[in-house]
Amino acid sequence: MSLSASLSSAVSGLTAQSAALSAISENIANSSTTGYKTKETSFEALVSASMKSSAAAGGVTTSLSRAMSVQGTISTSATSTNLAINGSGYFIVADSTTGQASDLAYTRNGSFSTDASGYLVNSEGYYLQGYPTDEDGNVIGGGVSGLETINLSNLTSPAEATNTVSVAANLPADAEVGDVFTSTASIVDSLGATHIVDQTWTKTDANTWTLSTGDPYSAATGETTGTADGTTITITFDSSGLPASISPDPTEVGFTFTNGAAAAAVDMDLGDIGKSSGLTQYDSGANEPGITISSITDDGIVAGSLTSVAINDGGQVEATFSNGLTKVIYQVPVATFANSEGLTQISGTTFKATNLSGSATINLSGVGASGSIVASALEGSTTDTATEFNKMIVAQQAYSAASQVVSSVKDMFDTLISVVR
């Protein structure tokens, strides 16, 4: 090999080890970066166009890759919107809120939090994509076209009018015929307003009672807010104190309201015939018999505003409202690739699909080849600092050795030039 070829080989060694040190430096710097995948440097012998001549230059060349399939350590997080993926796959994100197909990118960085506009965005500024759900929490749509940028602003829980008032109570068997007792229940109209209604229980025979419901009124002012239709319900009990018959069937009471809400037909659920699930008639054991209320509940729901958001294991985005309801509003999917090593880095821990990676296959958490989404957790960097320092020592030694070759070739050139002179 000629002096020029030796110099060329040594310079290629310096360049290669410089690239290796650069990758090591990046890995160590990102040893605490969420979702970071270690950069690897591969070395290959550089073959010249013709190696027939003993003077032909050789050397080394490098290529860089990332350990995309290596799983980082998953640790818990106090933030309810932080996510990690246990297994294969990536979160689907976009660099804008429009979430066009051309904007889609992929990351393992699940450090999502809500920004001022209500979007879930990670620490690199990328917006999380998901599938919207229907009222029952079922995913609407699928594929790339079904994705949308997850937004949690202006979420409300609409009011639901009362359909059923359920009563569990004991009517005193030791009461006199003609004795009257009262209880109160609440109902919600179609506009979300709550009304109070009085229930009047009258003993009409030894084992017979009637229930009548008064006009609705406001709990705050006591003013009448509507009209009840005057339906009277008759309940008879058997000798064991359990309901023997309840009429009419169905036990519906009609209401109209003065605030413009829709008229309502509310079922008074007083329990099952022959069972103690609702009304019973037992001796009160008191000097002055009275009705004993176990519970009076209704299924109406007032309108609610958003109070908190959390993402559960599996990637369901749940919104909790001031009325106590919790609803699934989005489902976070997972994207996988035939060759994840073929993804190209666009920013930090965010990547784009390429011809080498193939198109994304999008599934729900844990379906097919997709890994499982872990809630309130983050995936750590795959960098092992001990390994990187070992590689650094090797690269430093190789760099020093290549620089010695350069120095030796220089000395030989100097000697050759002096001989020529």
Provide a brief overview of the structure.
With 421 residues, this protein is an alpha+beta fold. It contains two helices and 31 strands.
Explain this structure.
The chain is of the alpha+beta class and 421 residues long. Strands 5, 6, 9, 10, 11, 23, 24, 25, 27 and 28 form a ten-stranded antiparallel β-sheet that branches. It contains two helices and 31 strands. The protein folds into three domains: 3-70 and 382-420, no CATH class; 77-151 and 332-378, no CATH class; 164-298, Sandwich (Tick-borne Encephalitis virus Glycoprotein, domain 1). 31% of the residues are buried.
CATH class of the largest domain: Mainly Beta
Count every beta strand, where a strand is a DSSP E run of 2 or more residues.
Answer: 31
Rg over CA atoms: 37 Å
Strand fraction band? 35-45%
CATH architecture identity of the largest domain: Sandwich
Classify the fold: give the CATH topology of the largest domain: Tick-borne Encephalitis virus Glycoprotein, domain 1
Set out the fold topology.
Blueprint: H1 3-29, E1 39-45, E2 60-66, E3 74-76, E4 83-86, E5 91-94, E6 104-107, E7 113-114, E8 120-121, E9 127-132, E10 148-149, E11 156-157, E12 164-172, E13 180-188, E14 194-205, E15 208-213, E16 226-228, E17 232-237, E18 243-247, E19 252-257, E20 264-269, E21 279-282, E22 292-298, E23 304-311, E24 316-321, E25 326-331, E26 334-336, E27 344-347, E28 350-352, E29 361-363, E30 372-375, E31 377-379, H2 385-420
Parallel strand pairs: 12-20, 12-21
Antiparallel strand pairs: 1-2, 3-31, 4-30, 5-6, 5-9, 6-28, 7-8, 9-10, 9-25, 11-23, 12-22, 13-14, 14-15, 15-17, 16-19, 17-18, 19-20, 23-24, 24-25, 26-29, 27-28
Helix pairs in contact: 1-2
